[in-house]
Design brief:
235 residues; mainly alpha; 79% helix
Length: 235
């Protein structure tokens, strides 16, 4: 039991190191210092924080939805990372980057971890509105806003981290910077569409529990419909 606690503390110590001294943390990634430890720690901590948030939003429907969302929401971030990371890595390698796949992986995990911490910090606010309102469309839009804001901050931190760690002194640096910018849009697009595929995370009030829904429409159309409903344009 004591050993398990000490391992957990070590995981969170790595995350705190990232949050408190980001430049030193990124410098260690650039030098390849303790990469496996960093990767495992960030994976564990970010998955736990995102799972907690997923469980909270799923509790709006039922305990089964809470359990499902606690599993699916971390899976959403991890699967998006696994889908998009090879594109970033090989594109950078083709244009002269000397950084390893593990370094790229650790860098992207720093962004996921920042997003996870922010989601965890918003958890009390989300829980408050879950308790005080039963307006499904409002809760959907509230969480779209929270996910968009935390995702934007996470992506911004990744952009800064990549610029600090990846080589910028050679002739291909400008090309790699454009690749990174394009990749960030790809990452956001894949994540939003994958989230739509893995829905529901809330669960429609009054409906039976569903692990997955039929693939119809898209994420962006659903947001427009929710806004229209709240504005009274559609009923």
């Amino acid at each position: 039991m004591i050993e398990r606690k000490s391992v957990g503390i070590k995981y969170f110590a790595v995350l705190i190191g990232l949050l408190r001294d980001r430049e030193a943390f990124l410098e260690e990634i650039r030098q390849g210092v303790r990469l496996p430890n960093k990767i495992i720690s960030l994976l564990v901590c970010s998955s736990l924080f995102i799972a907690i948030y997923g469980g909270i939003i799923g509790a709006f429907h039922s305990w089964m939805q809470a359990l499902s969302s606690a599993i699916k929401l971390p899976a959403l971030y991890l699967i998006t990372l696994l889908i998009c990371l090879p594109t970033l890595y090989f594109a950078n390698v083709i244009f002269g980057s000397k950084r390893t796949f593990s370094q790229h992986f650790a860098l992207v995990l720093t962004a996921v971890s920042v997003t996870a911490v922010l989601l965890f910090s918003f958890a009390p606010i989300t829980l408050f509105f879950l308790i005080t309102t039963n307006n499904y469309q409002f809760l959907i839009l509230l969480n779209v806003l929270i996910f968009a804001m935390t995702g934007f901050i996470g992506i911004s931190s990744l952009y800064q981290a990549m610029n600090l760690v990846l080589e910028q002194e050679d002739e291909s640096s400008k090309t790699r910077k454009k690749i990174l910018q394009s990749w960030l849009f790809l990452y956001a697009f894949v994540g939003s569409q994958l989230g739509w595929t893995l829905r529901p995370f809330f669960g429609t009030p009054g409906s039976p529990f569903e692990l997955f829904r039929e693939r119809e429409g898209n994420f962006y159309l659903s947001v427009i419909q929710a806004i229209s409903y709240l504005l009274g344009i559609r009923t």
